[in-house]
Fold each of these.
Amino acid sequence: MTKVYHQEIFGLREEKYDWLKSHSISNVEWNEIEPEGDFYIFKPQDKTYLQEYQSFKKITELFLVYSVGIVTARDKLTIGWTEDEIWRRIQNFAKLDPEIARQAYKLGKDTIEWQINFAKNDLIENEFNKNLITKISYRPFDTRYTYYTGKSKGFHCRPRKEIMLNFVEDNLGLISSRQSDSSGALPVFVSNKMTDAHLITSAVSGSYLFPLYLYPDINLNHLFSGEKIVSEKKPNIKREVFEELQANFQKEVSPEEIFYYIYAVLYSNTYREKYKEFLKIDFPRIPFTKDYERFITLGKLGERLANIHLLKSTELDFPIAKYPEAGSNRVEKVVYETGKVWINKQQYFSNVPEEVWQYHIGGYQVCDKWLKDRKGRTLSLDEIKTYCKIVSALSKTIEIQAEIDL
């Protein structure tokens, strides 16, 4: 039988070189490991809770359909700060010579899946329909605008139409990923809009969108036209999940109750710590309680979290962060110092706790990234208000996470 051994060292490069000079295969203290399917992890792994964890269903086994978010392939062209910016950009881009457009928007070389002429033709075929401009959840708490035709290898490389059109009407979507970034924070978020493929992680695995509801008859003919959908929405949660919970509780549960329960579980510190070895590898698995009261209690905490993350909770009406100094509002250099987030030499956001500043959602340190993505821009009044709300949202998230106990 084949045996697998492992060893590793940490330290500075010179220390590693010295170690290698004095060791060979024969005198290294190897640790025997036993990699197991499906992933065959070739490193030591704490398997104390592996059997228990594997008894839970993955989120991909709970939802009927899901997909990675929109792959634009050219964010600098396809993603804008405002509706007017995107509207002007698509009209200008379509008129430009391909090589001039390539330079103007820093588009790089064409690929098999995204080419300038493909994008231009897609815009022209849709006759520059202003109704196709839509909001997109681009990064955590960062809503931007794009022009959505739904055509693959068009303006967007992979628009994921079969999933994204379900967000023309009211909907919720769970965002998760197959694996964590180097930050180690579990990639989980919520959206009520179309989503970008790197919403919560820059990893190759991408950010997956799991809609709560499906709208079977949605098509591009009435996309954003204001026309109401005739057919009723259907839960995107598998029937077996409802049946199992009803058998456990002797009560019917709603799709929203299941969604919010899942959201609470994924933000549980106990859950994240207990199963951290396995959450690094694949989509998270969900332990469903058999206690109805516990299910409802966690669901209410999950609902609070979701509303806070959508920035629509009344709990954010009086943000803890302040923006006390007048000035240019231009983001020049983002620096954190003892509760203050400086955006230039004169202006800062105050009352930003260290734990909030350091908080990660997936691969992003939110308070830092949100501002750094706006470097060189002048913050609008709405953006200043939004940032203050983000600080409160993360502070509330930390508080609620402490309440969730699995």
Note: The longest strand covers residues 133-139.
Amino acid sequence: MKWHYQTLQRYKNITFGDIITKNDLSEQISLKIADEHKFFWLFHRNKERFLINAELEEFPIIIKRTRKYAHRNKAYNIVSAFNTLDIKPEKLKTFRAIVEDLCSFKHSNPDHQTLSAIIALCTYIDRINVRVCAEKEFGKDSIYDCLGHLNGDICVFNPESLPAIEYRLGNKVLVLNEIGTMPKEQRQLVLKALLLMGGMNNSYDKAKRGTSHMSKDVYDISELSICLMYNPRSYYKDEECFFDTAFKSPALKSRFFPLFFTGSLDIKQFKSGFDVGAEAKKWKQDLLNITKSLLYYRGNKFGELKPFGGKFDKMKDMYVSEVKGRHQMHLDRILDGVNLFANTEEEFIHFADLLLKAHHAYKVVNQEKSDLVVDEEDVIV
């Protein structure tokens, strides 16, 4: 029951409590307390305002104590004691071991399940943009949900508006579920935003500045990965809810590498009615080791790649040449993940072949009418 959501939430609570990162900070304000001006960072939790006097280098932090403070008819919680959260990168588990751990559930297509886990880890240790289309009960977002409990910087949600997406841009990975079902009046705004985010820019300017203290005007997205997830075209009664129909933009499609996966999780294997606290304590150190290892791979990926007898770069270039435009960059980075997973050259070729087939299958299953990949920055159709 290591990857059960209840176990993961309890693990997060007993290990870290409520983690506050730099991305949670909305603005810096000055207050006069006891005839002395002090500077605080403002952030929000559960509709309450919090203030903390700390340097940016001290984040992320864990709150230990707070006290109430009233100012100009508003209530604040001033953080009076906190601990700096310092998780040091360390290779305690191999990339392959983490993938196999995440794929420990029974699945009717274990190879596609493995590829899905490799891609999820690539979004975390690198920067990639993907479109993952998969059959019902494949488990598209479950791996991201599990990883999101480990360090609190992967967000999986169904967006209803552009501000809802912007508010979550402080995460390392943003998983947008069924984005085609969002209100039609929001689509053009979201299209423009996704073109910018998907263009691998380093910063993002909020569409409307200064409308709320709950979000920032400019976001650092230099390490942000975005994953768009949805079902095949045939699953939708209203075809307008299918991503490719809802967002008719070749430029947008060029920024997100498409894949189609098949198979489903065996739902009968998921049980309830277990001792959540005991399971969380049992797996606490192992889950922490996974977090440290992922941070290690984020900073040391290239040093861990296997040469496979010096053939790796040539093999990778061969696969990358099979796709076009910006898709080449994302495929290249995913193939690095396949390298980190594979033990042999033969195994690398096996999963690289499956990856390319999953890419080509997307067009066939979803009846994509054109192979055209447009690279212009300003094309919106």
Note: Residues 17-84 form one domain.
Amino acid sequence: MRNHLIAIQGSVASFHDIAAKKHFGEEVTTIECGSFKEVCDKIAHNKADYGIIAIENKIAGSILLNYQLIESYDLKIIGEIYLPIELQLLAKPGVKLSHITEIISHPMALGQSQSFLSLQEGVTITEYKDTATCAQLVSESANNKTAVIAGPAIASKYNLDVIVDQVGDVKQNYTRFYILSKGEDYVSDPNKASITLQTDNKPGALSTILQIIHSKGLNLTKIQSVPIPNNTNAYSFHLDVEFNDRIKFDETVKQLAEETLHLKVLGIYKTTPIANGIMNNVTKYLN
């Protein structure tokens, strides 16, 4: 069986890398990308078989750009994965918190650690690529005054010490990732779908959409408004819905299409419950 190439945002031991290995297996080959756009570009141009991008975090919320990227690159969502996020402040061995003058990390990790960061007077907070790249910079730098906010796998990978444990604002935090493909991928017994649509800019338009979904017995698990580039007065809506009957879902899509200016099914896949022990010790996913 061919080893699939998986495009990820970030490098080895980053949360995207962990998510890829959890979903596809430890032996998977990952392609490290510097941005979410590059991930999508790799898939669209057949340089990767699949890709993984974060779409929302329990604390920081949705990543709106990624909704736009999925649609603009005409990619398919073929699955989802929830990953528990445990954040720590890491630095070189022997360095103490009182020594730190700068903390670096990915914007999402920093955004999930605001309570801790607000207490660090006189410390510069710098956004940078992914957590793994930040950790590598700290590890290889001659400067012992820089620390990184990252996950448990990072400390081991780059020989860093945990100088403050659990710096995240919420202890039971998670990030949801989409599994992306260029084309359709067979999924047995799908029960979830992601849809993007645009309604008329008039009162009651969105209410009509919600009423149709309710009347068909579908469970709306997410609705996200996304600005439409170059159109300041319009928004598209991204919907995640769960269903027990595929025929009912297909009927719903057909009816929604009649009430919208634009509708596209981004993917039909199998839901992954947030439960099932996802909030247990994160290290079980890192061994």
Note: The longest helix spans residues 246-258.
